Automatic annotation (TrEMBL):
Protein name as it appears in the record: Uncharacterized protein
Length: 97
């Protein structure tokens, strides 16, 4: 499938809380159901959620796992577009030290 038509799965990079610092948003906490994946563009480690992982596993050639920064760049290239949310956010928080 052409890259522009693939569904972007925007995942928080591991340093998401550093990026969000001072922006007044609650810190991101991955849940026990999150696992690590790599951004397709910059290879940074990202937290992929269970629904995103399922979507990527079901349709690897129709999806694009990107960190949030690359996802924003990709979205600009595409001239905007819709960012969907797969739901979730209700998992048990993982303890991160
Ligand atoms: Zn990236």
């Amino acid at each position: 499938m052409e890259r522009e038509k693939r569904i972007m799965l925007a995942c928080p990079p591991m340093n998401i809380n550093e990026l969000l610092e001072g922006m007044g948003v609650p810190p991101f906490t991955p849940t026990v159901d999150h696992s690590l994946a790599k951004c397709a563009d910059c290879s940074t480690d990202v937290w992929i959620g269970p629904r995103q992982r399922e979507a990527a596993g079901r349709a690897p050639r129709a999806t694009l796992v990107l960190c949030m920064e690359c996802a924003i760049v990709e979205q600009h290239k595409r001239g905007g577009g819709i960012v969907g949310h797969l739901g979730g956010g209700d998992g048990r928080p993982r303890l991160v030290r």
